[in-house]
Design goal:
Strand content: 25-35%
Largest sheet: 4 strands, mixed
Number of strands: 24
Strand order of the largest sheet: 22-23-1-24
Radius of gyration: 21 Å
Bound molecules: ligand EPZ
Helix content: 25-40%
Shape: elongated
CATH class of the largest domain: Alpha Beta
Number of helices: 14
């Protein structure tokens, strides 16, 4: 079991480079199931979820070779052709992203239902209803989704809510369906636009990715391609919040400001100075922080994946801020842990009221999910004394070498293995 020991308070200053986006890489890897030819992905983050997806794809017959940040996925290897087992999907819900491509390419998919997770129930009913609209026969038995279709056929489908994974699964399935598919009420996250770009390089015909309605003209086959993954906006946002939290001055290079607009607006309102470079973002804070409310929402709203980190920041701001979580029903698990460090936060359903500023004090705390872990690390950077963040395997699922990046900015963070 690994943990972080953080000696605070630290003022972060310096420059680091953003990694590639985990949540764009996962669907891009699943897209390798749509072709017989190699797919080369660049700027792949070296994080646990990517290794889990590589294992799942190997099981499905897609070999992978990784060299630094480049991953080459080569279909045609040994492996069971159409079965994604519970043992792999339970480790990472994004395993369900193989459903659409497997069904479209091989006519059959048997994928474990992912089950609930720490942040919410997270059903996949919309993925399934969308695939049924394209003509799939879907049954649920023994904890597995069994989906069959000799040939998917294009159709109109309107999502009940914007779902990132649902939109990605349908985009991949429709790319090989016969005829035209029209998807409405789609999720508009930058990761979806990145997937559509990759699919277009493979020969897919897609219009409207990043908008509410996406039109896909199915093609008979898709080829291999090379693609460079977009920057991880959530990782970049986490380091910018860390800078604000510690009254620091941090530049993140290789990133795209447009993808982070809702966070940057809030940080500016809260008193941070933000400078936009061509592909870099610099955040510095000199004066006091002001409390500012946020409501999470699908893109282009404030991302739920930055809610926990933003809440840590608001413990240091002057005044009361209200944070409303609308995307997941159980994403406040960091609150009691922040409370152990001295934060004053009340929860009322999907609302959290943060009373600031509070002087945080180092404590032993436990990570419960990926972004909650990041929130506790940020709190530890601002707290007086030593903070021990336990169970950082959650953090390793989505942040590459966080301790190295933080140390490069002057933080005193050690990874301790036991
Ligand atoms: C993606 O999850 C991300 N994961 C999550 O990142 C992120 O928090 C989430 O989108 C929202 O932005 C990946 O991209 C791999 P959704 P996803 O389907 O696709 C409900 C992180 O920390 N819903 O957009 O699973 C669902 O329960 C994470 O990196 C249904 O009801 O999210 C949720 O309340 C965790 N039925 C809401 O929609 C469905 O069929 C949005 O979920 C599908 C979703």
């Amino acid at each position: 079991m690994n943990r972080f020991h953080i000696q605070g308070p630290n003022r972060l200053a310096g420059t680091i480079e953003a990694g590639g986006a985990k949540n764009a890489t996962l669907p891009a890897m699943a897209a390798s199931l749509l072709t017989d030819e190699p797919l080369v992905l660049r700027r792949v983050p070296r994080v646990q979820d990517i290794r889990t997806m590589a294992r799942l794809l190997e099981h499905l017959g897609v070999e992978n070779e990784a060299d630094d940040e480049v991953v080459r996925l080569v279909p045609g290897g040994p492996g069971r052709p159409d079965d994604a087992p519970y043992e792999l999907v339970k480790q990472m819900r994004a395993g369900v992203l193989v459903l659409g491509p497997l069904l479209a390419r091989r006519g059959h998919a048997r994928v474990s239902l992912p089950g609930g997770c720490a942040i919410g129930v997270r059903p996949i009913d919309q993925h399934l209803a969308g695939l049924e609209a394209l003509g799939a026969e879907v049954t649920l038995e023994h904890g597995y989704v069994d989906a069959r279709a000799k040939q998917l056929v294009g159709a109109r489908y309107r999502f009940g809510m914007p779902t990132v994974g649902g939109t990605e699964n349908l985009l991949m399935a429709a790319a090989l369906a016969r005829g035209t598919t029209r998807l409405e009420n789609c999720a508009r996250e930058p990761e979806i636009v990145d997937l559509a770009r990759l699919l277009a390089r493979m020969g897919a015909q897609i219009e409207g990715a990043g908008q509410d309605t996406i039109k896909i003209q199915g093609v008979e086959s898709l080829s291999g391609a090379e693609h460079s993954i977009i920057a991880d906006r959530i990782e970049t946002g986490t380091y910018l919040v860390a800078a604000a939290m510690t009254g620091g001055d941090v530049t993140v290079t290789g990133t795209r400001a447009a993808d982070l607009a809702p966070l940057l607006e809030k940080l500016a309102e809260a008193g941070c100075r933000i400078e936009l470079g061509d592909d870099s973002l610099r955040l510095s804070l000199e004066g006091p922080l002001r409390a500012r409310d946020v409501v999470t929402a699908p893109h282009p709203g404030f991302p739920t994946d930055l809610q926990a980190q933003y809440m840590a920041l608001m413990t240091q701001a002057d005044g009361v801020s209200t944070i409303c979580e609308t995307v997941f029903e159980n994403r406040f698990q960091h609150v009691p842990e922040l409370g152990r460090m001295g934060a004053h936060i009340e929860i009322d359903g999907s609302y959290a009221r943060v009373h600031g500023p509070t002087g945080l004090s180092g404590a032993k705390v436990m990570a419960t999910d990926l972004r909650a872990s990041a929130c506790l690390v940020l709190a530890g950077l601002a707290a007086e004394g030593r903070t021990v963040v336990d169970r950082i395997y959650h953090l390793d699922r989505g942040y590459e070498a966080m301790e190295h990046k933080l140390r490069a900015l002057g933080a005193r963070v050690e990874r301790v293995s036991e």
